[in-house]
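Researcher: We're reviewing a set of sequences before deciding which ones to prioritize for further study. For each one, I'd like a predicted 3D structure that I can look through quickly. This is Glycosyltransferase family 4 protein. If possible, include the structure in token form so it fits the rest of the review sheet.
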Amino acid sequence: MNSLLIIATPLVACVICAMLIVLLRPQLQRYALARPNARSSHSVPTPQGGGVAVIAAVITSVAISVSFFGAVAGSVLLAVLAAAVLLALVGAYDDLRTIPVLPRLLIQAAAVGIVLATLPAEFHLVQVLPVWAERVLLLISGLWFVNLVNFMDGLDWITAAEVVPVMAALALFGFYGQLPLGPTLVALALCGAMIGFAPFNKPVAKLFLGDVGSLPIGLLMGWCLLQLAGSGHLIAALLLPLYYLADATLTLLKRLMRGETVWVAHRSHFYQQATNNGFSVMQVVGEVFILNIVLAAFAAVTIWQKSPYVQGIALALGISAVALVLGRFSRKRDPLGGSKPPRS
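Model: Here's the predicted structure for Glycosyltransferase family 4 protein, in token form for your review sheet.
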């Protein structure tokens, strides 16, 4: 891969995103205020919709890279970006109004279906499953991944702490030929765009992504990870987003067991418990960022060490690291710097 491409794509995305935010923020302040609710970690109305700049920057920087470097073209990349735009439009409307749950899920499923339709007929991750059954599971998983990124976007900088290291790791894998060029370009662009967004979302945030950003980001991340899995690196594709998968999925299961309405706003995620338990926002996002770097390192081990024994150890260590952080977040923080179980 052209080394200039590695530098130019995220840099262009970063600059475009930051410039668009500066231009759009007055309008977002006027028309797209997010008011505090039961889920919120903020206490004052804050403009949302910064995801418009992120997604626009991703698309623009990818288009520039394709045009100037002749990097990649074709219907697959176009279809994936079109599906992301569809989700951005749905998210933008939902940020300003409210879309009922069922139509929202149907449109999201259509966007995920567009992405899955780009997969070649020979794409098959789990050989013991029929292809049609695997496609159904991928549709459900893709729909969940899109929504879990949205669910997890409830704290300043937490999405940046997730997206930047995961996308940087994917771009690095692509540089060494372990990921196709299309998803590598998207990973580079999304990483750069999120860096451009980060200063505006720094605690205390002056701007939120909104559904217009979190939904298509989930789709693009999911597609890149799926491409990594299809390149023979399924364990790596599971390790990279493992914190988000664990926090969101365990929270959903606990809410279902309690009989709660799962699509209603709440503050049950582990990262939200952490702020209730004495962790500062910076401590939470710092631990998530470091955890994601550790998970990326484990993912790299599974890519370059093909031994099933080594891959099993890396996966077990990744699960243990995530469990450690989730456990810390769910306990009251010790003023001396540790964490301790709540008193009975």
